[in-house]
Amino acid sequence: MTDASIPKASTLLRPDARTKKRNASEARFRFYGMVAIGIGLTMLLVLMFTILTKGVGAFQQTFITLQVELLENKLDKTGARDLELIKKVSTFGYAPLIAGGFNKVVADTGIQTTLKPKDQSGILSKSAPAQLRDYVLNDPDQIGKTIEFEFLANSRVDGYLKGRVTRESIANDKNISVEQLDFVDQLKQAGVLKKRFNMDFILGADASDQRPEAAGMGVAMAGSFFMMLVVLALALPIGVAASIYLEEFAAKNWITDIIEVNISNLAAVPSIVFGILGLAVFINYMHLPQSAPLVGGLVLTLMTLPTIIISTRASLKAVPPSIRDAALGLGASKMQSVFHHVLPLAAPGILTGTIIGLAQALGETAPLLLIGMIGFIASNAPGGISEGLLSPNSAMPAQIYEWAKRADPAFYERAWGGIIILLVFLVTMNTIAVILRRRFERRW
Amino acid sequence: MSVFWLVLIVFAIAAVAYVLSRARAMKSAEGDSRKLHSLPHFYAANGALSAAVPALLVLAIWLLAQPSVINSSVARVIPDHVLEQSGSLDLVMSDVRRVADGLDEAVRQGAMTNAEADDVRAGLTDVRRRLGDVGVALGSDVRPEVLYAAQRYRALNSTGALLRNIVVILIALVGFVLSYSRTHKDFRARNVVEKGIKVLLMAAASLAILTTVGIVLSMLFETVNFFKLHNWRDFFFGTTWAPNFRGDSELSILPLLWGTLYISIIALLVAVPIGLFAAIYLSEYAGPKVRAFAKPLLEILAGIPTIVYGLFALLTVGPLLLNIFGAEGLLGVGWMGGATSVLTAGIVMGIMLIPFVSSLSDDIINSVPQSMRDGSLGLGATKSETIRQVVIPAALPGIVGAILLAASRAIGETMIVVMGAGAIAKFSLNPLETMTTITTRIVSQLTGDGDFSSPETLVAFALGLTLFVLTLGLNVLALYIVRKYREQYE
Questions:
Q1: CA-to-CA distance for A342 and A335, rounded, in angstroms?
Q2: Out of A304, A345, B232, B237, which residue is the most buried by the measure of CB atoms under 10 Å away?
Q3: Number of structural domains, chain A?
């Protein structure tokens, strides 16, 4: 026997080629997993970054402060301060006053400009005369005085200050000229034109597609609020009742099986199908008013019910049977054991599930498109509960979709800004849910 | 009196019943609650429930049934020649309703008295102008027959409402009186109340079935109407989608189905590898710290509303792809005409589905018994060999189920494709072209002022039903596979 017949020693200290290969493959596999997680988290980061960078601008708006003389001979010829007569002066009557305001600014600050008065007013929003008119109608005693008034600037001017509009990009733009931008620069230096936080974007109403600078989320927010009210009022009691029945009382038979299979399948039905149901049943058959938050709320209720039922059942199931046995042993009926003991113990879990279901409903868009919650401008915030439920309105996600569809890029900024508002609501709701769970969840 | 007040009155009766029943029970026990069969509040609840529940139930049924009863009764007074002129009953009926609403509005604003609204004749006054004065715009002149039907509609509606109020209040009172007369110390109130509550709970649970039935019926009726107007062969086997609101459109589902499937496949190509590897890493490699950090973050992606993804596709991913593949793009190839394309929608939808695939697969991989891993590792396999050759094959049915669920999500997704995929229906393999999907077409056919008697609008219901059947099939299959797999290890 010679040494040659012994195979080359493979020791644990020196891995052979095959082991090396296997270890490399192990490292590769692990690396793939890390890459996958990395991609997922990067996407989240990119998404959040895009939303923030593009949407933050919507909360800032450019305003121009002018000294406007409210000439009595233009607005109230009789001098009687009769509101009906003042109302007869249309927005056209206010345009010269604004032009006068620009004249004064030019004279006061010594700006050199060759712009005609009409083009000077052109840097304002198209709603500027209406803004002034509303102010005068609210407070007719100001007529005859000179007031300091803050006008919304045109969306092009606003975009210029935010860097969205440049001198090159407006070459073919009828709405604004290079001279006007020069004028804007001068006004900015004089401190007349300023960018500041715009509360109207959060609380105001939507505006027509000529005036992106005036559009706001407030009314759509009210619409969403009323829809959530309907969802909460219907989905929570019905969902809890259904879960209690299925979890505590239902006999194991084919009817219960059908209900259970049904609920798990309903949870996975595409949301647009619920929209078709809403359109066919609530609007075409029952003739409930189109675009009303009540109808939206009913559709979203049907959609969130399965979610709420599933989470409620899970939290009922988590209550240990010993609690029920103890109650029954002391002479409580089955119903009493459930309502006096099981339900209160399961309440935090039910609440968490409900909040998550509401958050899901708040962000849902597709069914709302079918029941007509887009395509019009809800201009006034609803006055009361019945008006809020029945008069046409929009909802936050539908409003965002509406803005995204419009041609003017100024609306895109609004859409991103709207998403920030929507996400703030969702994050708040989910945080509350997490806190509730952390604080009240009991491990048995 | 509106429904709101009616409900309030019923509740008031119930509250009175609550108080009185309790008092009567206590009186029959001579003020000693130990002599009662049940606790006093059960007698009270019995009174309140007997008053409120049957009344509200009747109210609900009445509200559901009244529209169709009135519709059919009004439809009978419309003469045949009017039907022939306008083509369909639905059109005439919507005219009738609009005129009736207009009359209501006129009465509310004081432009007409109630009696006037019931008596105006189309020949004598210009109804259209008078309604126009109160802000109700009518498309054409009001025909006498339509006006007559509208007046009848109003009359029936007000009689119906009156009758409803009387009946509901009467039922509430009867329920109250019956329960009150039965209230006595030996009455087994607790048993009765608990039985009643159980029935209510059961009714809530059956609402799920009612919803499904509602979904199926509402779409089935309109689909049947659609197939009366349009050849079913063309719908299922035709190759062109070209709706034309003047009629004579080609409405075939195949090109839409192709667009839907193509986008879903791209979405799954993005989501499945990333989601699956993420799940494997999280469940097999990651330490508790990484897991606690990465898993919730990934799941945030699932909580973001789809409108956000839609906007992301339309305004970020689309232009980005256009910058690479467009005519003036980085590659200078000019393969892409606009920002919307199959790839745009597919990629964004894929991102949305990552957490869906990863958390479902994570659960399934975790439920593979540890003993199988230990056995494989004990025989000298590396961790990745164990995963590839033992864990994944064992978890495969569950993973397939998860992928099917994700596919069903992708097929039913609406906002991303509405905003990112485009509107042109065609058969093409180029992922950079715009294509359209079933959900997009449902939205576009049903938004706007479509009339519900033309095949162009009704086709949306047929599309919806197809979508429902498709996703339901995938779900049932997926749940079946997952459940069967779970039983193996439990």
A1: 10
A2: A304
A3: 2
Identify which of B208, B219, B284 has the shortest CB distance to residue A276.
B219
**How would you write B227-239 as a 3-class SS string?**
HHHCCHHHHHHCC
* Contact of B249 with B242, CB cutoff 8 Å: yes
Report pLDDT digits (tens) over B8-62.
999 999 999 999 999 998 888 888 888 888 888 899 999 999 999 999 999 989 8
Closest chain B C-alpha to A136 CA, distance in angstroms: 27
The verdict on B408 touching A (C-beta cutoff 8 Å) is yes
CB atoms A43 and B442 under 8 Å: no
Of B280 and A148, which is predicted with more confidence? B280
| A192 and A234 co-located in one domain | no
| Radius of gyration, CA atoms only, chain A | 32
Question: Tokens in use for B29?
Answer: 């026990």
Q: What is the residue range of A120's domain?
A: 56-197
Domain's final residue, options A135, A162, A197:
A197
d(CA A379, CA A195): 25
Q: In what side-by-side order are the strands of the sheet with A146-152?
A: A146-152, A60-69, A193-197
Check pLDDT > 60 for residue A7.
no
Closest by CA position to B347, among listed B262, B423, B282: B262
pLDDT at A5: 53
In a domain, A293, yes or no: yes
Residue A244 lies in a domain: yes
Q: Which residue has the higher pLDDT, A36 or B98?
A: A36
Q: How many CB pairs under 8 A join A and B?
A: 256
CB B321 within 8 A of CB B235: no
A435 and A286 belong to one structural domain: yes
Mutate to test the interface with B, among A271, A365, A371, A425 (most CBs of B within 10 A): A365
Q: Are B453 and B441 in contact (CB under 8 A)?
A: no
Q: What are the structure tokens assigned to B362, written together?
A: 């994570």
Q: Mind listing the domains of chain B with CATH numbers?
A: 3-187 (no CATH), 241-489 (1.10.3720.10)
Residue B273's nearest CA partner among B342, B352, B354 is B354
Q: Do B208 and A34 touch (CB under 8 A)?
A: no
Please check the confidence at residue A95 and state whether its pLDDT lies above 70. yes
- Looking at residue A320, which CATH number applies to its domain? 1.10.3720.10
Is the Cβ–Cβ distance between A396 and A373 less than 8 Å? no
Residues 36..65 of A with a Cβ closer than 8 Å to B: which?
A: 36-37, 39-41, 43-44, 47, 50-51, 54
Judgement on whether residues A230 and A375 belong to the same structural domain of the protein: yes
Contact B306 A244 (CB under 8 A): no
- Asked if the model's pLDDT at residue A1 lies above 50, the reply is no
* Interatomic CA distance for residues B94 and B86, integer angstroms: 11
Residue A354 inside a domain? The answer is yes
Contact B310 A270 (CB under 8 A): no
**Contacting residues of B for A44, CB less than 8 Å apart:** 297-298, 300-301
A189 and A227 in a single domain? The answer is no
- Based on the domain organization, do A177 and A228 belong to the same domain? no
Hey, is the C-beta of B59 within 8 angstroms of any chain A C-beta? Answer: no
Q: Please report the pLDDT score of residue B86 as a whole number.
A: 66
CA–CA gap between residue A34 and residue B365 (Å, rounded): 17
Check if A369 contacts B (Cβ < 8 Å). yes
Q: Bigger pLDDT: A168 or B354? A: B354
Are residues A155 and A233 part of one domain?
no
Q: In residues, how long is chain A?
A: 444
Residue A434 inside a domain? The answer is: yes
CA-nearest of B257, B249, B294 to B437 is B257
Q: Residues A76, A132: one domain?
A: yes
CA distance A360 to A307: 9
For chain A, the straight-line distance linking the first and the last C-alpha, in angstroms and rounded, comes to 70
Pair (A323, A415) in one structural domain: yes
The whole-angstrom distance between B124's CA and the closest CA on chain A is: 30
